Amino acid sequence: MTAADVLEALRRRGWKLATAESCTGGMIAAALTDVAGSSDVFERGFVTYSNASKTDLLGVRPETLATHGAVSEAVAAEMASGALDRSQAQIAVSVTGIAGPGGSEHKPEGRVCFGLASGRKVLTETREFGAIGRAEVRAAALRHALTMVLSATFETGAR
How many Cα atoms sit within 13 Å of 44 on the Cβ side? Predict the structure, then answer.
C-alpha cells in the first residue's frame, strides 16, 4: 500500500482528505503530496504539535487534554473531528503519540493514538510500536494512518 493507492481509492469515492498530525509532524501530508496530482484529493493538513495548537486550530477541548493527556484516543478523536469540521474534506485522519526518546510508565515510547472521522462517525485506535526509535515510530504511524484511510474507503457512511 502506498500513498498513491490511498489517493486513488479516495479519488474513486470522490472524497477529499484532511490530516491532523502531532508526532508525525506533517509526514502524512508530505507522503500524500509527494504524489503528483494529489491536490484533487488532499484538502489540507494541520500540524498541531503543541497542546495550544491542538486547541486553537482543531478545537480540542482543554478539558480533554487535561483529563486524558495529548497522547490519548480522546484527543485523537477531537483532532480528527476538528480537522473534518474545519475543512471541505469528507474524511480526516489524526495522529498523536510518543515517538521518543522517552515516555513514561503510563505512556510508553512508541504509543501512538489515531483518529479517523467521516460523516458523524469517529473511530480511534491505539498502537504500541515499542521503543524502536523515533524515525521508525513516525514511519510506522504514517503507514498505519494511511492504512486506516484506505480501509475507510471500503466502508460507507462518509458525508
Answer: 14
Report yes or no: 93 and 115 within 8 Å, Cβ to Cβ. Answer: yes
Q: How many other CB atoms sit within 10 Å of the CB of residue 75?
A: 27
Q: Which of 107, 111, 101, 103 is nearest to 133 (CA)?
A: 101
Q: Dmax over Cα atoms in the chain, in whole Å?
A: 44
How confident is the model over 10-36, as pLDDT tens digits? 999 999 999 999 999 999 999 999 999
Q: How far apart are the first and last CA of the chain?
A: 25
Q: Which residues in the chain belong to E strands, given as ranges?
A: 17-21, 42-47, 91-97, 111-118, 121-128
Grid coordinates of 122: 469517529
| All residues at 6 or more sequence positions from 153 whose CB lies less than 8 Å from its CB, including other chains | 6, 9, 10, 12, 13, 15
Least Cα distance to 23 among 123, 152, 148, 136 occurs for: 136
Cα 11 from chain centre: 19
